[in-house]
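Encode chain A's predicted structure.
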Amino acid sequence: MKIALGIEYRGTGFNGWQIQPDCPSVQQALEDALETFLQVKTPTMCAGRTDTGVHAMQQVVSIETQADRPERSWVRGLNTYLPPGVAVRWARLVDDDFHARFSARSRTYEYWIYNDPVRSPILDDLTGWVFRPLDVERMREGAACLVGEHDFTSFRASECQASGPVRTIRRLELERRGRLIGVRIEANAFLQHMVRNIVGTLIYVGTGREKPEWVEEVLKARSRAAAAPTFSPNGLYLMGVGYEDPSIPAAGPSPFGWEDPEHPSANP
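Encoded structure for chain A:
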């Protein structure tokens, strides 16, 4: 049978999702827990690999298994063997043709910026820090041109292995909550570092270094050199993955309480 798992993790302390030699990874922690729980090695497939320091409120993972366990048993059993930085939030029995990555129809990320003259020791690993004041309205104005289907070469990492640079952003929203600024992006798929490169570019606009219309110039340039540097991974969260299967929650809870009426927080 095939099981889908909803995984929440704090990226601090992990070298990203994917298993790497001699480096702690979220995938390794999960597969170690699965082996202890099931007494057999069980490979995992995730919806999207995250980089070092990137967090997830709801990563989706699929596994194949012969173990017939109640859904709550998967959650409680695996969490017994997982380290403090990782937790299984829910488990679902899915169709045999379900694939965490290839069955996905959309992905949603949030990036949270701590905007204050002084860095926060509490939020240091959970947000990106900008000490200059940010104008959210200017950032919204600049971001508007990114919605829709575009060639996102300017926002693509040089080592990105995706077959092409065209992606469709369905929503791109910004919200200020006191000293925190949230950026939410939903797309059919993302290129490597795409969100962090977009955020870095919008920060240039928010600080007044560039005008809002500059973002469109960057997009049309189709050159990574045209955009701002890649911003910190600390404030990036994989919020959720959209599937046709209605039993799979569309998103996890926002880390700083940004409620999304289109994707209510998962409450399995």
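The mean pLDDT is 94.
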